[in-house]
Write a structure and sequence with these properties.
By secondary structure, the chain is an alpha/beta fold. The protein has a single domain, classed as Undecaprenyl pyrophosphate synthetase. The protein is built from 10 helices and 6 strands. A 6-stranded parallel beta sheet has the order 3-4-2-1-5-6, with helices on both faces. Strand 3, helix 6 and strand 4 form a beta-alpha-beta unit. Helix 5 packs parallel to helix 6.
């Protein structure tokens, strides 16, 4: 139990934090912010009301993460599929909301020493939104605390495609096709949008849905998944801390075994699957004997 609680946490957040091990906090948390539409529907309000309400959730979550010392937080804000599957009026509202958020939240980001970055095909966003994004990024570039990354016009499959295009382009400029023989996982990671970040340790999904929705598919290979039924507009810093508490109950083995089973142990005879071909002694002892009829 922790006696020292970071400043700025409210009573509920402090209560959860006291049960955390500050030495085992995830370095990078990714969040799939889901449930805005359902939140609004339950209140007989238009979907855009849910998006607007979700801004408060972003503020609370970002500030809490920064206060407890999380190194990186990535929020899935706008997917590439949103362009195709959402009404134009809703998409236009989201773009205006993003621009307004960046302007309104800049003082909060600087106060909390947060550096802002983006992943996704930014060049496909409206030009005025791109300008506001770059202004906000530059305005926080001097900060040395948590890196807040907004995934905007983002698709994990598109990211992987873009990574391979980048690898091919690099090969063309540095030795030609023969250079491609050097491709490995490290090389691919260097060409991803997230090359400036460690892979997430924890991914949080709100609204109870059990899917990744084309989000950081490469990077989440070994991340712990925490799903909460809380809809995004109701999500606050305390919910993030609850997710971290669940994360700390788990043992991350990356495909290996835990300490209790890590050392080799003899296989019981009844589970031995050794073939006759692998047992020459048995063959020798049966020389001259006929098969049972």
């Amino acid at each position: 139990m922790q006696d020292k609680v970071p400043s700025g946490l409210d009573r509920k957040e402090a209560e959860v934090y006291r049960h955390l091990d500050p030495k085992r906090l995830p370095k990078h948390i990714a969040i799939i912010m889901d449930g805005n539409g359902r939140w609004a529907k339950r209140r007989h309000m238009p979907r855009v009301a849910g998006h607007r309400a979700g801004v408060s959730s972003v503020r609370s979550t970002v500030e809490t993460a920064a206060r407890i010392g999380i190194h990186a937080l990535t929020l899935y804000a706008f997917s590439e599929e949103n362009w195709k599957k959402r009404p134009k009026t809703e998409v236009d509202f989201l773009m205006r909301l993003l621009a307004r958020y960046l302007k309104a939240e800049l003082p909060t980001l600087n106060k909390n020493n947060i550096r802002l970055e983006y992943i996704g095909r930014q060049y496909e966003l409206p030009e005025d939104v791109q300008k506001r994004m770059e202004w906000a990024r530059q305005s926080t570039s001097h900060n040395t605390g948590m890196v807040l990354t907004l995934a905007l016009n983002y698709s994990a499959r598109t990211e992987i495609v873009d990574a391979f295009r980048s690898i091919v382009q690099a090969a063309a400029e540095n030795g030609g096709v023969a250079h491609l023989h050097q491709i490995d996982e490290t090389a691919v990671s260097r060409h991803l949008y997230t090359r400036h970040l460690p892979d997430p340790d924890l991914v949080v999904r709100t609204s109870g849905e059990m899917r990744l929705s084309n989000f950081l598919l490469w990077q989440l290979a070994y991340a712990e998944i925490y799903v909460t039924s809380t809809l995004w507009p109701d999500f606050r810093g305390v919910h993030l801390l609850e997710g971290i508490a669940e994360y700390q109950k788990r043992e991350r083995r990356y495909g290996g075994l835990n300490g209790e089973h890590a050392h080799s142990a003899p296989i019981p005879a009844e589970f031995d699957i050794t073939d006759d071909e692998d047992a020459p002694e048995a063959e020798a002892s049966n020389v001259g004997k006929s098969e049972p009829s």
